[in-house]
Specification:
The structure holds two protein chains of two kinds.
Chain A (H helix, E strand, L loop, with lengths): L17 H22 L7 H8 L5 H36 L11 H15 L17 H23 L3 H24 L4 H12 L7 H20 L1 H7 L3 H6 L4 H23 L5 H10 L6 H25 L8 H24 L1
Helix pairs in contact in A: 1-3, 1-13, 2-3, 3-8, 3-11, 3-12, 3-13, 4-5, 4-6, 4-7, 4-11, 5-6, 5-11, 8-11, 9-13, 12-13, 12-14
Chain B lengths: L1 H15 L11 H26 L48 E3 L2 H10 L5 E5 L10 H4 L4 E2 L3 H5 L5 E4 L7 H7 L3 E4 L6 H14 L3 H25 L7 E5 L4 E3 L4 H8 L3 E2 L6 E3 L2 H6 L4 E5 L17 H7 L4 E4 L1 H4 L6 H18 L13
Parallel strand pairs in B: 1-2, 1-4, 2-3, 4-5, 6-8, 6-10, 10-11
Antiparallel strand pairs in B: 7-9
The chains are: A mainly alpha, B alpha/beta.
Chain lengths: ~350, ~375
């Protein structure tokens, strides 16, 4: 292990103890933050009314506000946080690089590109309100997930073909840059000035106005992605000993790379479909989590997921209470906090390794 | 490409600067020779470019554009020199000239040019002049379109460039430096602004009379609406209108849409200033009487995956409300054609009020 800490593979068999206490604390904080998220909004509702509405009591308006507006938003932030936190921790373990994150592999950018492409050609959406329709559109999330899966496929094939982790990261960086450039091209050639704002949304990230319909669509992909990552975690612990040693204890490296990248791709793609590209959470949360779990990437998965979810729910509360004329975007706030943290992590790493 | 040429040039210099012993010497002579040649080529290029844009022919007496040598404005125009173009040096003759070679660089400018300039005097319009959100798109057919870059514009040798945002932030200063007059379209936040901008644009385009006619038409249409409102005598609580775009955007005070609703005798449901997302929580407790749907006729403006319009609350609370369609071309620029939108709002609202069927889908009025 790069930090000189002996990995504790055996600790996977001890679910209770320090990890359990940390996880319990984080879950409690998450529940509290979810409730806080339900408390805040355009309509002033007291804690009693919110609690009542959560249990189906009180007036219909309160129930609608809490169950159809505030709770879906908070749950969307929770799911996106879980997806990005788990993916970040898993990728950092696989690539053995604390600066790796889902965005590094180009999955987020490719998902955004596909969504923007859909908007550009106008094949997504309910058509004209002038012809009296409010039909729900799931085309955009589908496009985002297809984009993410496409990128995941490329990276997964590369993961099998390429032996070098550095080359794999570079392929991801190249894919990400290409998707970014293609998206800029679409913005550049936007059919009219009004559609640019909608396209830009996919690069900023937000959970505002999300409904359970959006969540039902993305949640299965996020769930499957997180599941794949969680069940592949033991290989990550072995990998901290080095590739040869991991091979020696029976870890199939190609299979591990494929599974981690597939899991991260699915979870990240679905989270982009739900909330756009939100950067840095996938770096910062695993970094914080690692110090609580003796730098074991496998044990870091769950705390990292919970920390990222907590971070995003709190950031979304911040987005709502900061008094600006136009509501801030969650991705922007996350990046404003995450980018300095990223630099700090990089500086720490340099101090440790140079 | 440039890097490659530069690279070859440096290699050439270095090759020549290596003496027979393989030692490098400072390539002063070669360098100076190359520099002289470069200066010569650059000068020639500048002269060619200057000829193209007409700058080369100007003299210090007449400022950057030699209007006396080659008049580009008609003398009967009452154009007031320099009023809209403080940075430009003008002579006395220019004030009485009318532009004959006009280019517009964006679709807002296109509308004024198409409205006030004779077709034969329009050199080119912007690439968006025939887009579906362009009000005078039919009129724009058959007229050359150009990109809004300096080179594309100057190569046509215009005597007037009309723009609002086309060409970028430095465009006005750049074109004026090149000796071409620039007419900037002013911003309009209400109908007084629209009339002011219309007057300025008509004057700048040498069509004062047409401008005044258009302003008089605006006034008379607004007066007709006010008369209609007083005949209808609708209760204020029946006037709550929610403006909505496909992306779920609404607007409060401080926007032209808000002023359009006001002129139509309606109350904006959005009580918060500026451009905002659909107020979902408020919709739970109270709803507007009518929806003013803007830009839904524009195929490029779609209710994307993130539009609050897709939210179940929006669908549930707004689905049976009467809809007044507002074309994107009425709203895309703050100009005289916003009146079409005001009329659509004022008269459609009256019609639904008379029928007293605000929740009847039959009252829905699609834009097309």
């Amino acid at each position: 292990m790069s930090n000189g800490v002996k990995p504790k593979v055996a600790s996977l068999k001890k679910p209770f103890g320090r990890d359990a206490r940390l996880i319990t604390l984080l879950v409690l904080l998450l529940v509290l933050s979810l409730f806080l998220s339900c408390l805040l909004g355009a309509t002033p509702l007291g804690a009693g009314r919110v609690l009542g509405a959560l249990f189906g009591q009180g007036n219909t308006g309160d129930i609608l506000v809490v169950w159809q507006i505030r709770l879906p938003r908070a749950v969307a932030a929770l799911l996106v946080g879980l997806a990005l936190g788990t993916s970040g921790a898993a990728l950092q373990g696989l690539l053995r690089n604390p600066l790796a994150e889902p965005g590094v592999l180009g999955v987020s950018a490719s998902a955004s590109l596909a969504a923007t492409y859909g908007l550009y050609y106008g094949f997504i959406g309910p058509g004209s309100f002038g012809v009296k329709t409010f039909s729900a559109s799931i085309g955009l999330p589908i496009a985002a997930i297809i984009g993410a899966l496409g990128a995941t496929l490329i990276i997964a094939v590369a993961a099998i073909k390429v032996r070098s982790i550095v080359t794999l990261i570079l392929i991801g960086v190249g894919l990400s840059s290409f998707a970014g450039a293609a998206m800029s091209l679409l913005l550049n050639l936007a059919p009219n000035p009004f559609s640019i704002a909608e396209m830009i949304n996919w690069t900023l990230g937000s959970v505002a106005n999300r409904s359970f319909e959006d969540i039902y669509f993305s949640a299965p992909f996020i769930g499957i992605g997180i599941g794949i990552l969680y069940f592949s975690r033991s290989g990550l612990s072995a990998l901290t000993l080095g590739e040869e040693a991991a091979n020696g204890v029976g870890v199939n490296l190609n299979r591990l790379r494929f599974l981690i990248i597939l899991g991260a791709g699915l979870a990240t793609g679905a989270s982009v479909a739900l909330a756009g590209a939100i950067g840095f959470v996938g770096i910062v949360a695993p970094h914080l989590a690692r110090s609580f779990v003796d730098y074991d990437p496998a044990r870091a998965l769950v705390p990292s997921a919970l920390m990222a979810a907590l971070f995003l729910i709190l950031a979304d509360i911040g987005v709502r209470i900061i008094p600006t004329q136009n509501e801030l975007k969650l991705g922007v706030v996350a990046a404003l906090i995450g980018a300095p943290a990223f630099v700090w992590i990089a500086m720490q790493r340099r101090a440790n390794h140079d | 490409m440039i890097d490659s040429i530069r690279g070859k040039y440096l290699v050439e210099i270095c090759r020549k600067s290596i003496n027979d012993n393989g030692a490098s010497v400072f390539p002063t002579r070669v360098f100076l020779k190359k520099m002289k040649r470069s200066v010569k080529y650059c000068s020639a290029s500048i002269m060619i470019f200057a000829n193209i844009v007409g700058v080369y022919s100007c003299d210090s007496r007449n400022g950057p554009l030699d209007l006396q040598a080659e008049p580009v404005f008609e003398s009967e125009n009452k154009f007031e020199a320099g009023q809209n173009y403080p940075n430009r040096r003008v002579n006395s003759q220019e004030s009485s000239l009318k532009p004959k070679r006009v280019i517009s660089l964006d679709f807002c400018a296109d509308q004024y040019v198409l409205q006030f300039v004779d077709r034969e005097n329009i050199l080119a319009l912007s690439m968006d002049a025939e887009a579906e959100f362009s009000y005078l798109k039919e009129k724009a057919k058959g007229i050359k379109k150009t990109r809004s870059t300096a080179e594309d514009a100057l190569i046509l040798e215009p005597d007037l460039i009309v723009r609002s945002y086309g060409g970028g932030a430095n465009a006005a200063a750049f074109f004026e430096k090149a000796g071409v007059r620039v007419l900037n379209v002013g911003w309009a936040g209400d109908f007084n602004d629209i009339k002011k901008v219309t007057r300025e644009m008509a004057k700048g385009l040498g069509a004062d009379e047409r401008g005044e006619e258009l302003i008089a038409e605006i006034d008379s249409r607004l007066a007709a609406i006010r008369q209609y409102q007083s005949d209808q005598s609708l209760a204020p609580d029946n006037h709550q209108v929610l403006y909505l775009t496909p992306s779920g955007t609404t607007t409060g005070s401080g926007s032209l849409i808000h002023e359009m609703l006001r002129e139509a005798g309606l109350v904006n449901f959005q009580s918060m200033a500026g451009w905002r997302s659909l107020p979902l929580e408020r919709l739970v407790y109270e709803q507007p009487n009518i929806i003013a749907a803007g830009f839904f006729d524009d195929s490029a403006s779609q209710a994307g995956g993130w539009s609050s319009m897709r939210h179940p609350i929006a669908r549930q609370q707004l689905k049976n409300k009467p809809v007044i369609g507002l074309k994107g071309s009425w709203l895309s620029c703050g100009a005289w054609f916003a009146m079409d939108g005001v009329e659509a709002l004022a008269y459609a609202e009256g019609a639904s009020a008379k029928n007293s069927t605000r929740n009847d889908p039959q009252v829905n009025q699609g834009d097309d």
